Amino acid sequence: MIMNDRGNGLNAMVAMFLPSVSGVVVWSLIVLWATASPIVAVSYEARSFLKTEIVRKKGCVERATHRILEGTRQLRTTAPSSGNTLRARGITGVLGALQSLRARSYNGCFVSSTLKFFVPLSLEGHSVPPTPFVRHTVRPLTSYVQHRRTPPTKPSHDREKLKMGSCFSSEAGTGDLQNDRSARLKTTRIDKQLEEDARKLRKECKILLLGSGESGKSTIVKQMKIIHQNGFSQTELLFYRPQIYRNLLDSARTLIAALQENELLPAPLPLDLAEASAKIDGAMVNEDYKSVLDASIVRACEKIWAYPATKRMVEDPALFHTFYLMDSAEYFFEAAGRISSPDYCPTESDVLRARTKTTGIFETRFTSGNLQIHMFDVGGQRSERKKWIHCFEAVTSIIFCVALSEYDQVLLEESGQNRMEESLVLWESVVNSRWFVRTSVVLFLNKVDLFKGKLGRVPLGEYFPEYEGGPDPSKAAKFILYKFTKLNRAGLKVYPHLTQATDTGNIRLVFAAVKETILQNALQDSGIL
User: What is the pLDDT of residue 26?
Assistant: First the structure.
């Protein structure tokens, strides 16, 4: 209800109730607005209600309520002429509390309605501080709330007194009209600014790359640089040289260990094979990109790869699943002669296949058309997933990468866990997460080239007995897609794509489709940015 008191110029309270997403938490924020001066107060009833709610709730509810009360206290006790800084702090406190509620998926309508009472503060010259919450939540929300608050007009009985020539002079009436016109102009300017800010936000998007280790996330980021940032410079290509040397040596050492584990090496070792093994074991990679790997070490790697037992072990499914070998190992072994050259400079194809474990979070920014894209690549190993939480807020879209060819492989960190099963578990936790209820999800079924080549010699049915489609790549891919989509209990829209992350042409076409998906779904609601 609203009550007017002409003696002290204080409006009555306005109570707003907020149902949470879970239907359990009910909020009430009491905001009073003064007609004579812009003062916000909290009544005794409001304090009593909030106190009762605090008793029932813990954690963020208590902190948010405290910030609301503290912010309104500062606004109540600070006169308009005593300084805008304290009043701005009060506004920031209340808005910060609303931010904590919104971050936990509370109904945005509550925030939108509450903002109606804070936007008028700027009409009196007390502008809302440009905090991240104001930029990304206050302005987008107020831009689409169909409410235009204007300063209150004089009651009808006051206008009658003006007509009757009472104590109000004609000069005072003219002043009121001028103030009213000035306030309306300020309101219009604010509305235009809010709409302009919302348009800018709609041109930005935040994409999170998720997936298990070695699913192709970092390769996608490299492709974005090639497609949208004019590729790699000569110096940037050279920086990948030590990493490629390391990939070659690690793959050779893995093969030697697997040959020994499976007892495929003769005893004693032939002299040439023993020398090659010794050279590889003792080799060190200089991290200086100007250094070159000794040609004799590269020849030793070639010898291990060409050994007949190595070929038999790699092609035998019963043996291959007992050890981990990076997908690009064969590529680098075949290119060993070129890599051993003293003036070797990695190509973009080499860089796309170079493998290093992603630790932490890496952000890539680029422009595609008129869209500003922030892409985040996070580590896919189990030890890295706890860091993902810092990227979840305000995500426009998720690209979840799955390596189709991993159905017969095991985790690097746990040799007894199938990598496809691990991806399914991870997908289930992501697609049903409360963080992504308003996020478009793009599913990249990656490494389709390796998948096609493997199906003929490693039947998918051996690892998923319910599959009966044989070596047909199309049927096999549809089966794996079905395995993922049936875990989508939240009913999110999922946009699947078959991809080959090392093929720039393929990724260029796929990402164009992804961009259209983002524009048509997530960016229409600027409140999530």
Answer: 34
281 flagged as catalytic: no
Return the pLDDT at 499.
97
Q: Helix crossing, 84-103 with 108-115: angle to 10°?
A: 160
Successive 10-residue mean pLDDT values, the chain, 529 residues: 36 34 36 34 42 47 57 53 48 54 42 41 39 43 40 46 42 60 74 61 79 90 94 94 94 93 85 89 86 90 93 85 86 93 94 85 85 81 54 79 92 79 92 84 96 92 93 96 95 93 95 86 51
Cα(463)–Cα(408) distance, integer angstroms: 7
Query: Does 447 belong to an annotated binding site?
Result: yes
Cα distance between the two ends of the chain: 35
| Neighbouring C-beta atoms of residue 87, cutoff 10 Å | 25
Which position among 87, 246, 355, 419 bears the catalytic label?
355
Q: Which residue has the tokens 């998923």?
A: 464
For tokens 């109540």, name the residue: 76
Is residue 83 a known part of a binding site?
A: no
263-279: buried (b, 16+ CB within 10 Å) or exposed (e) per residue?
A: eebeeeeeeebeebbeb
The reply to whether 355 belongs to the active site is yes
Annotation marks residue 5 as catalytic: no
> Is residue 149 part of an annotated ligand binding site?
no
- The string of DSSP codes covering 466-516 is T---TT-HHHHHHHHHHHHHTT-TT---EEEEE--TT-HHHHHHHHHHHHH
Q: Is 468 a catalytic site residue?
A: no
Whether domain 241-345 has CATH 1.10.400: yes
Q: β-strands 204-211, 397-403: how paired?
A: parallel
328: annotated binding-site residue?
A: yes
Is 379 labeled as ligand-binding? yes
Out of 65, 137, 142, 219, pick the active-site residue: 219
**What are the angstrom distances between the C-alpha of 340 and each of 16, 193, 239, 247, 290?**
72, 60, 16, 13, 13
Could you confirm whether domain 204-231+358-528 is CATH 3.40.50.300? yes
Q: pLDDT value at position 518?
A: 80
| HSE-CB of 361 using CA atoms within 13 angstroms | 16
CB 394 within 8 A of CB 425: no
Q: Is 363 a catalytic residue?
A: no
Please spell the DSSP secondary structure of 378-427, one letter per residue. E--SGGGGGGGGGG-TT--EEEEEEEGGGGG-B-SS-TTSBHHHHHHHHH
Residue closest to 46 by CA, chosen among 61, 58, 29, 26: 29
* φ/ψ (deg, to 5) at 362: -120, 130
Q: Is 215 annotated as a binding residue?
A: yes
**Catalytic residue (one of 377, 406, 408, 422):** 377
Q: Where in the chain is the domain with CATH 1.10.400?
A: 241-345
